[in-house]
Amino acid sequence: MKFEERFDWKLGFVLILFMIISCVALYSAQQSAQYNENFMMKQLVWYVVGGGIIGVMLYFEPDFYKKISWPLYLAGLIALLALVIAPSTIAPVIKGQKSWFVLPGLGSIQPSEFMKVFTILILANVVTNHHERIRVKDLKSDFLLLGKIVGLTLAPLALIMQQPDLGTGLVFIAIMGGMIIISGIRWRVILPIFGTLAAAGTFIIWLAIRFPQILDQYLGVKQYQLGRIYSWLNPEQYSSSEGFQLIRAMRAIGSGQMYGKGLGEREVYLPESHSDFIFSIIGEEYGFIGSCVVLLAFFLFIYRLTTIASRANHKFSTYVIVGLICMIAFHVFQNIGMSIQLLPITGIPLPYISYGGSSLLAFLLAIGLAFSVSYHHRDFMFGEN
Questions:
Q1: Which residues contact residue 231 at a Cβ distance below 8 angstroms, ignoring those fewer than 6 apart?
Q2: What residues make up the domain containing 67?
Q3: In the prediction, which pLDDT does 225 show?
């Protein structure tokens, strides 16, 4: 088959749509007096670079990514460990987090963004190999697979929490949860574990609200670290501190009403609107209609990924795509949710739209894997090859 027949034009269309939405939103964001950088042009350059990377990734079959999953995973762990022990000259603490390498001539690089993709690859590899080697499934094999998934996720998660970066840590937990659900582990093993974790999380939030001193005494959680939960529940009370961004974001989105104020007609000042709060710009300038267009684009994107996963020739490819869906869906839900007070603010970007070189490149690597799976798909008369 020719290239134009094998290339996934539907996925390509959605990616181009994301690029247009991102550039238009960033053009508005950089008009603020807070910034003197051309975020739109930088984002466009990253898209071009990422497009070239996707073009290269197309010509490698999914089996190739399975073979290199361990080297990528180990390289990612080494990078995260190096970030923890690196001197502040190359890994400065920015906004309370030590999450970036700052390299002369290259700018900042955030290893945790790429580690998300590497973790998905290694989990897909391990789950696939587990089922190939163990044909007779029992409770022992289920707990063995569960231990592999949890262990491989906790290794990078522990290093990321040293930065500390709670938002990115939650993404890893979402990836792990999704992989556990589709791994073939029986529900009588999964449900008690998930139920216990949900109950524990609810209990901790209740303690944070009612008895924060207990968390301080036994878990070392300080009062100021609970500010995001308090500001989420009652942003007006913390309007001059942790609740400032949330109040401004909701005011911006609400002021857009149905049709928005139009391109460049922003009135609500909001810090970091080019990154974590890019959705507030879309809501203010294009209103409910524009916001729905963005949500529709993500729906089409995830629907297309689901289609690719359902018809993939190999289990590894299916697991990879499902892992990507979990990662992207959590990012979208969390980012938009925190902008409208549905969820606490955690500071993770809106995929393909928020500004950020490391983040955008990592997401383009992710979609490159999806393009590869779709490009090398084969229809066989008697099912899977």
A1: 237, 238, 241, 242, 243, 246, 344, 345
A2: 3-375
A3: 62
